[in-house]
Amino acid sequence: MPFVEPAGYSKGELDRAGERIRVGEDTPNDLALLDNWRASHLYVLNTFQSSLRFRRARSAGGDTITIAQRLKRRPTIIDKLRREQGMLLSRMHDIAGCRLIFPDVAGLNRFRGGVLSSRAAHELVGGKERYNYIDHPKPSGYRGIHDVYKYNVGSTGGVKWNGLRLEIQYRTVVQHA
Q1: pLDDT digit string, tens, across residues 92-140
Q2: Could you tell me the pLDDT band of residue 174, with boundaries at 50, 70 and 90?
Q3: Cβ distance 112 to 147 under 8 Å?
Q4: CA atoms within 13 A on the CB side of 57
Q5: Is residue 154 pLDDT above 90, yes or no?
Q6: How far, in Å, CA of 30 to CA of 78, rounded?
Q7: Is the pLDDT of residue 62 over 70?
Q8: Closest CA to 50 of 120, 106, 132
Q9: Cα(82)–Cα(22) distance, rounded to whole angstroms?
Q10: What separation in angstroms does the CA of 146 have from each of 14, 24, 33, 108, 131?
Q11: Which end of the chain has fewer surrounding CB within 10 Å, N or C?
Q12: Distances in Å between the alpha carbon of 24 and those of 19, 80, 82, 105, 153?
């Protein structure tokens, strides 16, 4: 099955469609654009989860790390656009996400350190500590670390997806419960 490519629209067109969706004045074309944008993230998601599973297989104790992936559903994307005023569809960084669950914080930090020191050209957005909810829990009590990456490759096959964002969530079993 071939992966869906972004359909040639500009980020401005994407954001204007997102704004119309936010205020409830969307057209069928706006929703088709949203669906294409969402589906195009599957390629990036597949690439990252494959890399994370490979790294897990090579790391000591890797069999104790649970890795899950998901694309945010259309209703959830629309809800986020409506809930977070100023959210741009082109910059929504969690349309694609991988969640890694570890037995303990030490294992989480070791594994994440390996990911952060990887030679991959993907751009870490916001720095290492911006979404560190273990050291700085959310008011709700939520704990975990989120790293946001902007996909970046030089291969002719993957360059079509450059710039799409993906979120990696790191949590312990206790934090996940």
Answers
A1: 999 999 999 999 999 999 999 989 988 888 999 988 889 999 999 999 9
A2: confident
A3: yes
A4: 6
A5: no
A6: 12
A7: no
A8: 120
A9: 5
A10: 25, 30, 27, 12, 5
A11: N
A12: 9, 13, 9, 43, 36
- Report angle CA 84, 68, 8 to the nearest 5 degrees: 55
Under 8 Å between Cβ of 89 and 18: yes
- According to DSSP, the β-strands at 165-172 and 96-102 are parallel
Answering whether pTM is above 0.70, one says: yes
Q: Is residue 46 classed as helix, strand or coil in its secondary structure?
A: helix
Closest CA to 59 of 113, 140, 5, 4: 113
The token pair at 17 is 């469609």
What residues are paired with 147 via a beta bridge? Answer: 168
